[in-house]
């Protein structure tokens, strides 16, 4: 059994993106007997779709867990809803802007609900002293885009669970941008590890 | 030589205030040969003044360092200015509200500038991966009140340095209040320890 | 043809809720030949459902437009998605808290997309100098609850459009709560009037 | 008797700055028999100082009232304290950054307190439905810089009152930046007019 764990590459001039760092850190590790494939996704609509369609086809994961950076978030957010919508005035790293409200897959449902135990994860994180909450909107930019693509493909295949986690900035990366909430990098890593343990049933 | 380190008691229904916890944690410790007296101050205009006037008179500290909770702060804030003003629509724990803009000491300067190396502290904290910044306003509620009282009394005595540090919430205390930025309690403790080492010259 | 326009009653100790005020202000008015029924909804899960089910059955509106207060919003938000989920740690005015993630209608779709011209409304408001944006999450508290109920019932009947608008606070109501963004009440009224004109085709 | 009213030019790529627009709008007007000189200041440390020193010398104003934009502010903020400190990592429009904490005038007091009736102005604005509050920190960038320079020069001359008002963005200027609080431009104008009437005693 294989877990596909993705984060994102740095974007918009930032040097490091903790979501991608964490995905790479877990790459090759095993948790509860399941092998983790950790990948850093490019911040590009076109390439995210290509990479995810290819990886999900090849790897046939029993679990997709996406990680994304929410720079203004104060806590670990467990996303409940993947929305079949892409829309943002912000360009991706290819310079593409999705300024019309569009469907990601024309034949997809308007929304999918996560199949990981979201509420239980929140409770476990809080029990460890890590701030966490449910979130019902992953936005309409690249995080939701990756989440929806994975959810749609796995649902169509009929097996494989899917979830998405937004994390705040890592304290070590924001020391000079004083208005961004953050948690230390090792706390973010611990949070994702705990999420994986809860999902994989230990 | 004695360091007077103060934090505040919990207020407004909160169970724990990390600033007071930290002050108590350092009580009796020694750093660079200086003994630390760590005190938790009541959230009361009247009692803060009484306690500080008495302590500073008795202890004759070579350094006053106040710690206060800034629940919406995302980083460690090194306060530069103590203002001779008290004003807040928020009641203290005795129910007293200071809704007129008033001086704290009629004969005091309008403002004092901290005598701890604020910029160097910020740099040292950032070097350790702890988000930090200078702040030029400690508010006009009890944090600035304690800071100004200590600065005024020490300046009048002609010896003793004075500084004030605002800290964000401790992650462990806010797990259910998801909109408050926070840092783990042990990071806050490490920050204050580092501040003390920088000031006390090691 | 009849338009059903709803806002909410004050809650949580506030004296006035601009969303309910506006709904009552438009009650009985005509816009483009359509008569407006403006109702203030109670801040109660049970009563919102009762009132809306009854009203939609009786009135058979050609348009449902809900208005809700988003106290931290800085602009008029045109909601795009109604979610079949209720979840909040905040109690309603009956003291009921929905702390389990639940469906609003067991047999409803997970999400409905608004049938009012959301993007065109945003453009028209901005052209009038009124800050506006699309929003893809109406939350999981009473605003989304009302929106989803109306969308579900109208979709099932097969006629009647549905939309929801979040408004910021009215400046006149927040003069002492200085941290809340706001727009003057007459600007909020003008915004809703403009929304109605855009939808009703003039 | 002459009133010197200043705002700032646009900066950082913005097209219009409401503070400068308002200063120009009042230029040449009379209020309570006092002639208003309204000037738009450049966003430059060097030029602000030059312009203000020259203007205050020539005009000998009975009142200096500065207006500045506080893009994240939700209300009209009446500044109480001018601080003898300049410090910001943000460059001005000449590319100058003041990254060392420095005094504005080596021989100035650390702080001056405004001599306009700040609390009464807040009350009057609120009475008109305009959100307003006292503020005890005008920052350490160009707004405080202009405020301190004027306060210092007028205090030294021994006549002329001084005050500073921070305003939020104008709604008309932020229609596409949806996260910025704002008030309509005409409300901002009305607020400044009211401030002038309160100060000039009508």
Detail the topology: elements first, then pairings.
4 copies of one chain form a homotetramer.
Chain A: E1 2-8, H1 18-26, E2 30-31, E3 34-41, H2 45-59, E4 63-69, E5 76-79, E6 81-83, E7 86-88, E8 98-102, E9 111-113, H3 118-127, E10 132-135, H4 142-157, E11 161-167, E12 169-170, E13 182-183, H5 185-199
Parallel strand pairs in A: 1-3, 1-4, 4-11, 5-10, 12-13
Antiparallel strand pairs in A: 2-3, 5-11, 6-9, 7-8
Q: Can you walk me through this structure?
A:
The structure is a homotetramer of 202-residue chains. In chain A, the strands form four sheets. Chain A has a seven-stranded mixed beta sheet with strand order 2-3-1-4-11-5-10, sandwiched between helices. In chain A, strands 6-9 form a two-stranded antiparallel ribbon. Chain A has five helices and 13 strands. Chain A is 32% helix and 28% strand. The relative contact order of chain A is 0.22. Chain A has helices spanning 18-26, 45-59, 118-127, 142-157, 185-199; strands at residues 2-8, 30-31, 34-41, 63-69, 76-79, 81-83, 86-88, 98-102, 111-113, 132-135, 161-167, 169-170, 182-183. The two termini of chain A are 15 Å apart. Chain A is globular, with a radius of gyration of 16 Å. The first copy, chain A, has a single domain, classed as Peptidase C15, pyroglutamyl peptidase I-like (Aminopeptidase, 3-Layer(aba) Sandwich), CATH 3.40.630.20. Chains in contact: A-B, A-C, B-D, C-D. The A-B interface holds A 74-75, 125-126, 129-133, 171-172, 174-176, 178-185, 187 and B 74-75, 125-126, 129-133, 171-172, 174-176, 178-185, 187.
